[in-house]
């Protein structure tokens, strides 16, 4: 494609647009009767099993999607990413989160340099440090072991590590390694988040990990200064060097803050925040909690999918198939949302993480060359574990708007329960719903079926299900550290595939900047009003009214308040 050519101007896009009229005449009730089609729409790799037969698509649809991928130079784009080319053109950066989990002997270049040795230098440093903390050879200022960790970070420095931590918390192997330890994540600048994080913790046994690439992120640094005060007020200022470490590249500011630069763990500008869970951002706090050996298995799971994504043919490539089907649903069938529905409580933080990975990456209105997009791109992602979601928003999914669904199931529960006399185990009860819901969405229930069941005439419209609602099912053999890595990488690469096809930059995030810059003005105004009683000026009528009301209602706060920390 020429640099200014949009994918919608290509023949494969136009062919798919025309093809949607054929698909609108089909129904999943009929498509699911075609056994050969269903068999073609099942793919297995490294224990993961994908069934996308309940997508509103035929084999002809898939052929047309592969042609679209070819028109978008998808294979070349993937190779450019793995080759370290600066595909994040607006920031002139490589995109190499795959290097974060590459084996030691792999060569991945950025700007002519193999970055894998640098990655492993940091991983080795994390392994050494985390083992010292865990075995008690690194202790706090008063000589007590550091058994509690608070990781401070926001966005990608928080959501990804929290997802992995939550998923590992009930894995039997990880549980053994985490005995006697706690890991908490402080993200929101809301003081309530500080209060919740330090509640019940003793500064003497707490290690704080400050995650900020530049060491200037406003929310993160205010929270870091707050916990520095919490430690200093209890143990003295000199304790900071023993109780705080950093994940950052700005060693000057790290040292100025009071943290020993030797206790700063690096990452690189070719790692986007939302893709950084496999860097020190996630690996350090997770290794402190579970030990490096568990986290290394997580990295190996992700690396397995990285190689699969790079080398497998598109028709057998799980991330490519997921990405192409998302493009089909969003840009051709007109379904802008996607529900992520893991039938595992351990994955309760998966949807919030993918929400950022997907929506921050692909929430763009212009092409990578700055041309306004005349088609819809990006998905609205949300989700909740099954069966909780069934009792929350499935009503809309079944009888309201059409929302394509990802059902994620686990064959073996992390924590099985069997009760004598019960028809099925607890996990089988959960999985009964995992298998039933996609069919309910696909087939629905007709008025004729309801009549045969002697349903009252006036209730038939209310109890009719239209069906023909697309979903896919992803089945994992278990949910250990390796599987969690596989799942993460599959969704990361899915997002990249969508962006490559849409012709957008999935690796910048300029949309988060404007609100932050406006907040700087508000911050200055609040300071001037609090300390000098200056009136609110320079804002529109609405904002002026809200700010004035806020200041008046909180006028009991002194102009120069003394230090005050939460007292839960």
Concise account of the structure shown:
Helix content is 47%, strand content 10%. The protein has 568 residues and is an alpha/beta fold. Helix 12 links the parallel strand 8 and strand 9.
Features:
23 helices, 13 strands, 6-stranded mixed sheet
Task: Outline the secondary-structure elements.
Blueprint: H1 11-23, H2 28-31, H3 35-40, E1 42-45, E2 48-51, H4 59-71, H5 74-82, E3 109-110, E4 113-114, H6 116-135, E5 148-152, H7 159-168, H8 172-177, E6 182-186, H9 191-198, E7 206-211, H10 218-235, H11 240-243, E8 244-247, H12 251-257, E9 264-265, H13 280-290, H14 292-311, H15 318-332, E10 337-342, H16 350-362, E11 380-383, H17 394-399, E12 405-410, H18 426-443, H19 447-452, H20 460-463, E13 471-476, H21 481-502, H22 513-532, H23 541-553
Parallel strand pairs: 5-6, 5-7, 7-8, 8-9, 10-11, 10-12, 12-13
Antiparallel strand pairs: 1-2, 2-13, 3-4
Subunit structure: Homodimer.
Family: Belongs to the GPI family.
Pathway: Carbohydrate degradation; glycolysis; D-glyceraldehyde 3-phosphate and glycerone phosphate from D-glucose: step 2/4
Structure description:
- The chain has helices spanning 11-23, 28-31, 35-40, 59-71, 74-82, 116-135, 159-168, 172-177, 191-198, 218-235, 240-243, 251-257, 280-290, 292-311, 318-332, 350-362, 394-399, 426-443, 447-452, 460-463, 481-502, 513-532, 541-553; strands at 42-45, 48-51, 109-110, 113-114, 148-152, 182-186, 206-211, 244-247, 264-265, 337-342, 380-383, 405-410, 471-476.
- The chain has 568 residues and is α/β, with parallel strands linked by helices.
- The strands form three sheets. It has a six-stranded mixed sheet with strand order 1-2-13-12-10-11, with helices on both faces. Strands 6-5-7-8-9 form a five-stranded parallel sheet, sandwiched between helices. A two-stranded antiparallel ribbon has the order 3-4.
- Strand 10 (337-342), helix 16 and strand 11 form a beta-alpha-beta unit.
- Helix 6 packs parallel to helix 13 (280-290).
- The longest helix has 22 residues, at 481-502.
- The termini are far apart.
């Amino acid at each position: 494609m020429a640099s200014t050519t949009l994918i919608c101007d290509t023949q494969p896009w136009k062919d798919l647009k025309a093809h949607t009229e054929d698909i609108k005449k089909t129904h999943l009730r009929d498509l699911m009767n075609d056994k050969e089609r269903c068999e073609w729409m099942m793919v297995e790799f490294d224990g993961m099993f994908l069934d996308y037969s309940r997508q509103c698509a035929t084999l002809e649809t898939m052929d047309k999607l592969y042609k679209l991928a070819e028109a978008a130079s998808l294979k070349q784009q993937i190779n450019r990413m793995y080759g370290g080319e600066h595909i994040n053109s607006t920031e002139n950066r490589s995109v190499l989160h795959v290097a974060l989990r590459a084996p030691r002997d792999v060569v991945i270049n950025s700007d002519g340099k193999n970055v894998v040795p640098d990655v492993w230098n940091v991983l080795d440093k994390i392994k050494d440090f985390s083992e010292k903390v865990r075995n008690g050879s690194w202790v706090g200022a008063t000589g007590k072991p550091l058994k509690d960790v608070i990781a401070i970070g926001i966005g990608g420095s928080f959501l990804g590590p929290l997802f992995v931590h939550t998923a590992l918390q009930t894995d039997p192997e990880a549980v053994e390694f985490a005995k006697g330890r706690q890991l908490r994540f402080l993200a929101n600048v809301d003081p309530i988040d500080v209060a919740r994080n330090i509640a019940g913790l003793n500064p003497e046994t707490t290690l704080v990990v400050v995650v900020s690439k530049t060491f200037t992120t406003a929310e993160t640094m205010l929270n870091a200064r707050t916990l520095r005060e919490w430690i200093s007020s209890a143990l003295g200022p000199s304790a900071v060097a023993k109780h705080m470490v950093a994940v950052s590249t700005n060693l000057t500011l790290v040292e100025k803050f009071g943290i020993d630069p030797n206790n700063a763990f690096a990452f690189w500008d070719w790692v986007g925040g939302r893709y950084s869970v496999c860097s020190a951002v996630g690996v350090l706090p997770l290794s402190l909690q579970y030990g490096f050996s568990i986290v290394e298995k997580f990295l190996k799971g992700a690396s397995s999918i990285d190689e699969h994504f790079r080398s497998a043919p598109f028709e057998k490539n799980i991330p490519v198939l997921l990405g192409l089907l998302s493009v089909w649903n969003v840009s051709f069938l007109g379904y802008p949302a996607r529900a992520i529905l893991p039938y595992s409580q351990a994955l309760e933080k998966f949807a919030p993480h993918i929400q950022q990975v997907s929506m921050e990456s692909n929430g763009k209105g212009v092409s990578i060359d700055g041309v306004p997009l005349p088609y819809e791109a990006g998905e609205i992602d949300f989700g909740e574990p099954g069966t909780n979601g069934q009792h929350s928003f499935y009503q809309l999914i079944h009888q309201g708007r059409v929302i394509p669904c990802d059902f994620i199931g686990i064959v073996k529960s992390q924590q099985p329960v069997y009760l004598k006399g019960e028809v099925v185990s607890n996990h089988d009860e959960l999985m009964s719903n995992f298998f039933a819901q996609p069919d309910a969405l696909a087939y629905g229930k007709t008025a004729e079926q309801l009549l045969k069941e002697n349903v009252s005439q006036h209730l038939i419209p209310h109890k009719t299900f239209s069906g023909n609602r697309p979903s896919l099912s992803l089945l994992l053999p278990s949910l250990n550290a390796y599987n969690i890595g596989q799942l993460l990488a599959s969704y990361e690469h899915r997002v990249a595939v969508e962006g490559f096809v849409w012709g957008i930059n999935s690796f910048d995030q300029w949309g988060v900047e404007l609100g932050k810059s406006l907040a700087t003005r508000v911050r200055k105004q609040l300071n001037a009003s609090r300390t000098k009683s200056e009136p609110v000026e320079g804002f529109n009528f609405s904002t002026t009214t809200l700010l004035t009301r806020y200041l008046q209602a909180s006028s009991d706060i002194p102009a120069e308040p003394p230090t005050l920390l939460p007292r839960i």
